Amino acid sequence: MSDAEGKIRLLIVDDSVFFRKALTDALAGDPRIQVIGTAVDAMDAMEKIKTLKPDVATLDVEMPKLNGIDFLRKLMPVNPLPVVVVSSAPIRVLDALSAGAVEFVRKPEIKGPDGMRRFMSELTVKIRIASAAKVAKRTAPRPAAPPVPGGTAPAASAVPGAAKPGLMLRRTFVGEAPIIAIGASTGGTEAILEVVRDLPANTPGVIIVQHMPPVFTKMYAQRLDRICHMSVKEAEPGDRVEQGKIIIGAGEYHLRLAKDVRGYYVRSEQGPKVSGHCPSVDVLFDSVAEVAKANAMGVLLTGMGADGAKGLLKMRQAGAYTVGQDKETCVVYGMPAVAFKLGAVQKQLPLGEMGGEIIRYLTNKK
């Protein structure tokens, strides 16, 4: 969305006078963005959102009176808006994404003009991405998922610190179990959670790339581990891809599938960006196509750009089963759209059906 001149109407929400001015001044010369106002705290922001009707807001998390997380929880049910969180605390960023924010940028420890330039370059990209995001009104947390073929009825979702329920897949695999490979970007942290949270505890190994920087991927893996029936960890070189385990690609490390006499494992290696990202979904999917061939399922979820589309096509050409998230449920219908146009997607599905499709695939896999 944008105004009649094609500019993205931006509201800056930050309690720091210095930071509000720094962002306003830095964005003044951007032909695609118009700063229409600033807000000093959450209450001020709520009023200005009503009157100014911005397309996007940037949001500091640590603010007086009402922090950014609680602000999002109040805002999204009544006035959903694409929000880019600006914070240096990974756990707070994950809380914000869970509360409805669509993107985030790490607040810089500004050391000279180069640090600010890098930060502003990333921020403007994220603002443009957010302006294309589809943000729905937030509702109460969904109930436990219904029964799925091949599995027992899931128990209520686990809460942090709670023991994991005993949900199990009703089949065993003779020989090598299939690989489930998932890729996502904008909107992906919550989309991935929706897909994997109710997968049975004995589901074959799942490997995931979500575009996130270092530290954030580790915190995200820890969060998923507290919620999911399967165990979840950030990738380390040589991690085995095993039944009951989800491996999340580490920030600034490409995640690749490999194989030896013992079975599947992952390589986690630094390298140049591929398709604009490190980790890259294309890198993961390419390796799965080469190593697992037809013994795999590829899942491409919400995200801006095209990362993963060509890799998913390679997976399909190698005989793997491939699915993509549909337009209606994507926060940004970018990566899955490109994959669909390339012929990489065998089936498009709403996000809420992805977990069940994985179970059906595993149940029917010969």
Describe what you observe in this structure.
This protein has 366 residues and is α/β, with parallel strands linked by helices. Helices cover 33% and strands 20% of the residues. The chain is built from eleven helices and 14 strands. It has helices at 17-27, 42-52, 68-75, 90-99, 112-131, 188-196, 216-227, 281-291, 309-317, 335-342, 354-364, and strands at residues 8-13, 33-39, 56-60, 83-87, 103-106, 179-184, 206-210, 231-234, 245-248, 254-260, 263-269, 296-300, 321-325, 347-349. The protein has a seven-stranded parallel sheet, with helices on both faces. A five-stranded parallel sheet has the order 2-1-3-4-5, sandwiched between helices. Strands 10-11 form a two-stranded antiparallel ribbon. Helix 4 links the parallel strand 4 (83-87) and strand 5. Helix 8 (281-291) runs parallel beside helix 9 (309-317).
List segments where confidence is low: pLDDT < 50 over at least 5 consecutive residues: 140-165
Give the SSE order as H and E letters: EHEHEHEHEHEHEHEEEEHEHEHEH
Structural class: alpha/beta
| Distance N to C terminus | 47 Å
User: How many beta-strand runs?
Assistant: 14
Residue share in β-strands: 15-25%
Which helices and strands, and how do they pair?
Layout: E1 8-13, H1 17-27, E2 33-39, H2 42-52, E3 56-60, H3 68-75, E4 83-87, H4 90-99, E5 103-106, H5 112-131, E6 179-184, H6 188-196, E7 206-210, H7 216-227, E8 231-234, E9 245-248, E10 254-260, E11 263-269, H8 281-291, E12 296-300, H9 309-317, E13 321-325, H10 335-342, E14 347-349, H11 354-364
